[in-house]
Amino acid sequence: MMEELLSPACWVLTWPRMMLLVVVAHLFFGGVSRLLLLQRHRIRLGLFLGWCLLITLALFELWAIQLKPGLEPGWADGLGWGILLLLIGYWLEYCWLRRGRVGELVSETWVEPVGGLEKLHDAPMPTDWNCEAGAIRLDRRRQPVETTFDLGIRRIRLGLPGFPVGPEPFRLLLMSDFHFSPSMPVEYIRCCVDRALALRPDLILLPGDFAACEGVDVGRFLPELARLRAPLGVHGVMGNHDYGRGLEGLVQDLEAAGVGMLMDSWRGIPFPERPLILLGTQWPWVRDRTLGALAQSAPEGYRILLSHTPDNFSEAVALGVDLMVSGHTHAGQIRLPWVGALTVPCRTGRRFDHGLFRRGRTVMVVTSGIGCYRPQYRMFCPPEMCLMEITRPLENGIQE
To answer: Are 333 and 354 in contact (CB under 8 A)?
Structure first.
């Protein structure tokens, strides 16, 4: 077969056409699909049209083979190799296009890790949990890369100009993407809450995805969630998975558990120097006018936007939001060493998979979350809570 693929007839008749097929398809994916990606709620349409073009071109080539049965046998082999190269190239280009160059990673000169990621190997967490959907066995010695319940605490010290902080650091705890499901042990959530309370945060923010899917009974998790307490309260927004369960019922359950839900609304927290203004979106992907109207209705103060997805970063920057907190990405959930996340369900792709980002005066924190979803598995990607210790701007930190 290799001799046929390398034969002059195959090179003259096959490979140029395959390269043309690749170029045309990539131009489509990089042009039309990219334009569609920039339009709200049209990602699936762009991908659908792209695959339609790919299938059409492949069928056309097969039709051409039938019209020219006298071609070298390597022609068909070349077609298969060409389509394989197209698929590989498409996947690489698709990941590149969705990276999204709309922000820059915050400089390490003003982000000071405090303790890094603390593994809870020594915490009182059982290694065998019996769940409604079957037994989950967690044996780190035999599953060194499995990190589904390997909960950690990411500690970050931030020097934020304009934040109404006193002499002591302000402790803001970010907990996202619980994804309550029949396969999640209640003991795991109890451990998360215990660790959160031990951190003694001043404010707790929950940016969505409490339920995993429609029909999930979150009632057995709510008593644990209700134990979350902070002097300035516990506040949250809805995630995309929360809508499958029934919006009104879930909001009522969460508020009964002590979580103040922000549904396209704002809430002020008085401070002596400058109030904190919490902004929350009802739907994870907002339009400019929705977030703009919300920002206009809120009073002046230090503005913190709770947005389930980091895709709203550009809108937050345009509206002058000071701090934006997000989840949704799970940091890819499955990561590879030296490669990172294989894919991230965001319009901006892997660019904001997790971490801290800055654009202008706006800072965004994206956490990898606590739970997981389809598959119910994490690899090289431990779940986390993010504790931000906010201080006055550091000596070499952000300057307004």
So the answer is: no
Q: Which of 288, 323, 330, 286 is nearest to 306 (CA)?
A: 323
Kindly give, in sequence order, each residue whose CB lies less than 8 Å from that of residue 96, ignoring residues fewer than 6 positions away: none
Q: Which element (helix H / strand E) includes 290? A: helix 288-297
In terms of DSSP bridges, do strands 259-261 and 234-236 run parallel, antiparallel, or are they unpaired? parallel
How far are the Cα atoms of 100, 122, 344, 370 from residue 311, in angstroms, in the given order?
A: 10, 36, 11, 20
The 10s digit of each residue's pLDDT in 211-250 is: 876 666 788 899 999 999 999 999 999 888 877 666 778 8
**153: phi then psi, degrees, rounded to nearest 5:** -120, 115
**Within 10 Å of residue 258's Cβ, how many Cβ atoms?**
16
Locate tokens 């490669």: which residue? 339
**DSSP class of 232:** T
Cis peptide before 126 (omega within 30 of 0): no
Q: What is the largest CA-CA distance in the chain?
A: 85
Token output for 273: 């120097």
Give 236: exposed, middle or buried? Use CB within 10 Å, 0-12, 13-18, 19+: buried
| H or E element at residue 173 | strand 170-174
CATH of domain 104-391: 3.60.21.10
What is the C-alpha separation between 367 and 175, in angstroms, rounded? 8
Question: Does residue 37 surpass a pLDDT of 60?
Answer: no
Q: How far apart, in whole angstroms, are the C-alpha atoms of residue 205 and residue 173?
A: 6
* The pair of three-digit structure tokens given for residue 101, joined into one six-digit string: 């160059």
Q: d(Cα 76, Cα 58) in Å, to the nearest integer?
A: 11
